[in-house]
Amino acid sequence: PADPANLDTETKITQQAGQVWFPNSAYKTAQAIKDFNREELPLIIFANWRGFSGGMRDMYGEILKYGAYIVDGLVEYKQPVFVYIPPFGELRGGAWVVVDPKINPDVMEMYADKDSRGGVLEPEGTVTVQFKQRDIVQTMKRIDPLYNELFTKNGKEEMTHEERKKRVAELRNREAYLMPAYHMISTTFAELHDTPQRMAAKGVIREILDWRTAREFFYWKVKRRILEFDVEKKLKAANKKLNHGQMLSMLRRWFIESKGPVQNYLWMMIGLWSLGWVTQRNSNPFQII
Fold it and tell me: Does residue 158 register a pLDDT over 80?
């Protein structure tokens, strides 16, 4: 029995799909985010979800409420948050919505591996919505000479009922022969919109990373962001009217005045150059440059 004190109980094994948030897993995720925030720790989310489970049982289990808990936890987060889509991982549907950096842009940043994919709709769903079967048929008429010839003759030539029935059958057979190839091409084209390069071009991620150097990148990135947050706290204590963007602009201006315009590019580097300077500012953020 599942409960040794009750012989009537029995173990029940329930299979659940991977890469999907269910009510219990969504609640655990939200609770972990709140615990990390309470302990004032930076957060790195390895995002590899295809969305939330939307069955009737999950709706009864309050999946929407627990998904909203994740958003609430990220909105209230006071430490650096990094969302990283790992190699061959994908971020889709409602899972993208609840970890989007726009939820809390002052602390959240999103990155993606060069072999990852991301988008609200999967390629199959995009094709179903944006490039329906009638659109594929129109493309066949435009590109395939044989299909275009059959379609033209079927519409213009005078023929008997039997001949027209034969031509329609030939047209349908050609359409069925071409449909798998055209559907595969359209799906591949839709998938190109989910690549990290496209995500970077649309501005939804900060940078494209390589798994081999991701550990080093996040080590320096987390270290620098923690120091920046410490400096911002001291600036905020001196002037409560300053917002996050103004304080970052102030730090960048101080860096340029300190290093000179020639070394301006070093600010964008997350290694020892900028880290050492931010460490110096953190010890005395009001030092006259």
Answer: no
